Amino acid sequence: MKNINILNKLCFVFVILFINNNGFSQNTNTVSVRNKVTLKEAHKGDLAIDTMLLDSYGLLPENIRQFYMESRFIFSENRDANFTNIKILASAKKHNMALIGGPMLGNLKQDKVTIWLRKSSTAPLTVKAINLDNNIEKIYYKKNIDPGVEQRIVLDGLAANSDYKYEIYENKLKIAEGKFTTAPTSEEKGLFKLAFGSDFHKVGLHNPNLVTQIIKRDPKVMLLLGDIAVDDRENKINMHRSDYLLRDMSKPWRYLSANIPLYTAWDDHDYLNNDLSGTPERFTTDDVDALRAMWYQNWNNPKYKGEGIYFSTQIGLVEVIMLDTRSCRNVEARGQYGCYLGMEQQNWLKETLKNSTAPFKIISSGTMWSDDISNGKDSWGTWDTLAREEIFNLIEVENISGVLLISGDRHGTRAFNIPRPSGYTLYEFEAGTLGGVPGPEAMAKDTTNQLFGYAGTDVIAFGEFIFNTKIDKPEVTFRLIDEHGEILEKHVLTYDQLTPQKK
Ligand SMILES: [Fe+2]
């Protein structure tokens, strides 16, 4: 514990500047970074580095820091420690931490949303949801709470496409609050805004400037495509927990997760390590099961559909399909049909695309769909071109409407046309710049099919789609927005462009 005390003393040279009673600044002025953590350091993630991340944009209140330090020590010393550890719960009590995780919104529907959180005590919760259009209040109770075990509270019976605020109380004391807007019905014509991005790499989770700009744009949901909160922890499940604790102590992260429903999938670094997938040598199927269980516990996604962490969900007019492009790979069959998604997921994806009645579909891949950057390095292009071709062909043959591809992994932000022999073009957008970490070149060697490109360290930015169905010819507008709120890119695609034409 000696190192912890030294770090604490060092950290207290500075004054808390930007934290208000809600634990996050409403001031939109840019906050300067105090501790710059590199990607290499994030991958290492030792005590000193994780502590630097914790205070990277401003010092946390002392009780939060102390709780984090004490709990991280317990995780690092004990491979089996989890959030129900008696010492972690005692530390939370000592430091007056009613919540040790969350709130995190997820699974938004027209009549409900789910709040994920982790409590330090058995004290029951009351959640108030107030419809801001008519002030109608609904109250939800959560009893029988296991301390340290993730809770999911479904706020149901809500009105569609309505603005709500919510407040969470423990023993009449408000311990958290946030807002959300319920999804529109699938028939409703209007505007729907969705944000997305990848590669926070732990670093970006602590960036108040980026979170402020995301919230300011007011997206109704956000999709995160991997390399989010855990970095290179391999099968050390205790350190996965430690990284999720670090996430949950971040004030910008809590502000984001309490106010925008999140949908997540993993990539290599939050799965095992760089470019690892499936069950590589040194690891076992038990490790994969444990990693999946860890994922289920620490995110708030809709119901998973198979063995992996993939799912689909309709939000208003958009079917969101998030693939598991890591854990279902068959590493012994690289290059053969079915090795990338696994046959269960490949067949599920085909059925999901065929059966969806949503006019628009977003399909996420943790790695890139196209091969223009790094020659397909660890993605479809070097693993399973047959399965990719089968999906692209199915979209054309079945005239599947409104398809957008999104991706991550190759740090930077880019967009590509993927022209098909039929004349139809698929569009891929990548916003792998949430952490502003280095990666490959911004532009491909052959730029024929590239719409734009920024290298990973050029910008800290996120992607946004606005679906407009209230005009005669529906369209989607993509924007790339940086941490200062500047719109760097704008591209409009019509529904007709995104839909194969019937022959
Ligand atoms: Fe990454």
Can you describe this structure?
The chain is of the alpha+beta class and 503 residues long. It folds into 3 domains: 2-94, no CATH class; 99-181, Immunoglobulin-like, CATH 2.60.40.10; 192-494, Purple Acid Phosphatase, chain A, domain 2. It contains 13 helices and 20 strands. The strands form 4 sheets. It has a 7-stranded mixed beta sheet with strand order 11-12-13-14-16-15-17, covered by helices on one side. The protein has a 6-stranded mixed beta sheet with strand order 10-9-8-18-19-20. A hairpin with a 6-residue loop joins strand 18 and strand 19 (475-482). The radius of gyration is 22 Å and the shape is globular. The model is unreliable at 1-27 (pLDDT under 50). The structure holds fe (ii) ion. Fe (ii) ion is lined by residues 199, 201, 227, 269, 409, 411.
Mean pLDDT: 93
Q: What is the name of the CATH topology of the largest domain?
A: Purple Acid Phosphatase, chain A, domain 2
CATH class of the largest domain: Alpha Beta
The protein's oligomeric status is single chain
User: How many β-strand stretches?
Assistant: 20
Ligands (ions, cofactors included) = fe (ii) ion
Estimate what percentage of residues fall within beta strands. 25-35%
Shape descriptor reads globular
The structural class is alpha+beta
> What is the CA–CA distance across the termini?
70 Å
Tally of distinct domains: 3
Sheet having the most strands? 7 strands, mixed
Output the CATH homologous superfamily of the largest domain.
Answer: Alkaline phosphatase D (PhoD)
Report the C-alpha radius of gyration, rounded: 22 Å
Please count the helical segments: 13
Strand order of the largest sheet: 11-12-13-14-16-15-17
Low-confidence stretches: 1-27
* Percent of residues in helices: 25-40%
Mind telling me which CATH architecture of the largest domain this is?
A: 4-Layer Sandwich
